[in-house]
Amino acid sequence: MGKVYVNGLGSISAQNTFDNTAFLSDVEYYTDRVIPVIDVNYKAFIPPAAARRMAKGIKMGIAASRTALQEANLENVDAIITGTGMGCVRDSEKFLSAIIDNDEQYLTPTPFIQSTHNTVGGQIALDMGCKGYNFTYVHASVSFESALLDAMLQIQTDESQSILIGGVDELAPHTIEIHKAVNHIKSEAVEASKLLQNKTKGAVFSEGANFFVVSNEKSQTSYAEVVDVKLINTLEADELNTELNAFLEEQNLSIQDLSAVVLGCNGDVEFDGFYDVLAENSLKDTSQLFYKHLSGEFHTASSFGFWLAARVLKLQTIPEAVVLKGDMPSEIKNVLLYNQYRGQNHSFTLLKSC
How far, in Å, CA of 90 to CA of 58, rounded? Predict the structure, then answer.
């Protein structure tokens, strides 16, 4: 089967990641429980009159996707595949609140129209005039990985040549309060640089949009080759080492072939133990990176980890802010990503230099 390359990317996050000329050189360390993204100049990508009616997730998605396309030197793609956990949840809240406040009468349709999960992918397609395959995966914390897996299958089977994929989620007031009530968000503000030492329940929540152009051809703008993705819904902690080794064996690799591993630990004392199982056993001698102290936690936060791994492979450097354990490898060749959320939806993603 054909190879899959990452040829362009665009990221809007709680860090200064939108400028692809820099790489986490100016890190923002927050002390909070919920952190918003650093907004960009959306007027540069969307007419102001249209932007006023758009949900934040749509604006983030259009800006990030346009940046990825520009970097890949493309004006259009064969398909658009989006992953999102909550979609345009702000508009969902607006519409449901309006139903109650207006006694189910005289409702404005715009929030309802824009509240569906596939709105971001649809608006991106309208923006670029893409009439090809357009699909949105809503698979909780493996939504982005599901989109990536779909794109890989299409490229490897010659159904598509270039595909835009991405993960996008936005914060919304009522949803935040629900997560706080069930202790999915930390009860007190946490200093980002000390997130993993906090040892309390819950995570620091955030939002973001990370988009990538994947293609069957390597180009001058290529960041990395996507080797494989594996999703496992339910997995016991004591099965992790076996599953990891089996995943690598399928690619004729071993733990020793890994230059670095990117872990999705988020400071939740109840579930970070899954990462510790690998970090203290199979991966104890592998350089370990982490990122959710910078990006925050959201359903598609793993797309930020994918962004990080792709840039590490292309630039052959690891920012000090993401180093969890280990030294800088002399050559960065294979990078593994492992993520899970609250003990479920485990994912292994393998990238290599190209």
Answer: 11
| Residues constituting the chain | 354
The C-alpha atoms of residue 242 and residue 347 are separated, in whole angstroms, by 14
In the chain, the percentage of residues whose pLDDT exceeds 90 is 88
- Residue 328: the pLDDT is 86
146-181 pLDDT, tens digit per residue, is 999 999 999 999 999 999 999 999 999 999 999 999
d(CA 110, CA 94): 10
Between the CA of residue 24 and those of 39, 118, 183, what are the distances in Å? Answer: 16, 31, 30
Nearest to 84 by CA among 161, 159, 142, 154: 142
Side-chain-side CA neighbours of 33 within 13 Å: the count stands at 16
CB-neighbour burial class of residue 331 (10 A; exposed 0-12, middle 13-18, buried 19+):
exposed
Sorted by sequence, the CB contacts under 8 Å of residue 295 that are 6+ apart come out as 13, 14, 15, 206, 208, 301, 304, 305
Q: Provide DSSP, 185-209.
A: B-SS-EEGGGGGG--BSSB-B--EE
- Could you read off the pLDDT of 255-308 as tens digits, one per residue? 999 999 999 999 999 999 999 999 999 999 999 999 999 999 999 999 999 999
From 340, 295, 291, 292, select the one nearest 140 (Cα to Cα): 340
**Please, what are the domains in the chain?**
4-215 (3.40.47.10), 225-352 (3.40.47.10)
Task: Please give the pLDDT value at position 52.
Answer: 87
pLDDT in the model for residue 12 = 98
* Segments in the chain below pLDDT 70: none
Cα distances from 320 to residues 95, 137, 266, 327, in angstroms, run 44, 33, 18, 10
